[in-house]
Each structure stands twice: as structure tokens, then as C-alpha cells.
Amino acid sequence: MDPIGEKEIRGSFVNCSKGEARRINLPRALPELPWADLDFLGWRDPGAPDRGYLVAGHRGELVGISLRVAQEVRRSFTKSTVCSVCVTPHPGTGVSLFVAPRVGAAGRQGNTVGTYMCADLACSLYVRDIKRSEPGVRFETLTTEERITRAVANLEGFLDKVFDGDLRSA
Ligand SMILES: [Zn+2]
After folding, report:
1. How much is the pTM?
2. What are the Elongation factor G-binding protein C-terminal treble-clef zinc-finger domain coordinates in residue numbering (predicted)?
């Protein structure tokens, strides 16, 4: 994705209040992020461990989504789980259940959408093998290009659910 700055990031959020978007802790050293290798910008809030954010192009617009990490039943540490965006298998706590309020009235009424994703929201780096999950084994034969295409499509599907037919009004 093209590099974006603080103003664009804060202005992109669609499922939280403007006040909340102003208070979000952004990733450090934004200009130094590996933008060319990112399909979307995802990060965990360094000041609030149960919060995560992602900013992505969606239907021609830059869209920021505020996420909360759901409280979950403890999973077996011997079992690996798979990110539903980039399909990278992770052992233990490498995958988290993230919950996003829906855009618009539905979200204000407490309606949310959940998705299992890489806990560090670095899917773009996993699909490119820049970052590896602990087992380091990829039992797929897809090319990097195919994995990127699939991850982008999966993220698109999630964003569609967050919007849920609610067209962005402004
Ligand atoms: Zn992932």
C-alpha cells in the first residue's frame, strides 16, 4: 500500500467515534514501516493490549477499523490455529479473536463482527514469508502472489461484514 500519515489514519476510522480515533496510539515510526510489503496496516495498541486496529483500502476508500480482542476460552498450547485472513497457522496464542463494532446504527447498538486473525495483525508479512509463525512450516504450495490475493479477498470479506450494507454516509 502507499505510505499514509497520522492525519489520514485518524480520519479513516469508520466504526468508532472521532474522539476515539483521535486518541488511538499509532504505530511508532510510521514513515519507516515496510509499506511496499503491506496490503493493509494493522497494529496492536501499545497502550491498550486488548485493542487492535487495521487500515485498508476498501472499495476505493481508505477505511480504518477499530478492533477489540475478545476474551476467549483457553486454547490448548499444542494445537495450532489459523488466521482467517492470511491462513497462516500459529501455535498457542498466535491467533486472536478480534471483534469489530459494525459501521453505523448497528454498531452503536452493540452489533459486532468477529474474526480470527494473526495476533500481531501482520498478515501481509506472513504471506510474504518476511515474518514466520513459530513452526516455520508452510504446508501449502501456493505462490506468494496467490497468498496475497487470497488474504486481500479474505480481508475484503471481513470489511464487507463490518459495513454490512451500511453505505458510508460521509
Ligand atoms: Zn494473518
Report:
1. 0.89
2. 8-162
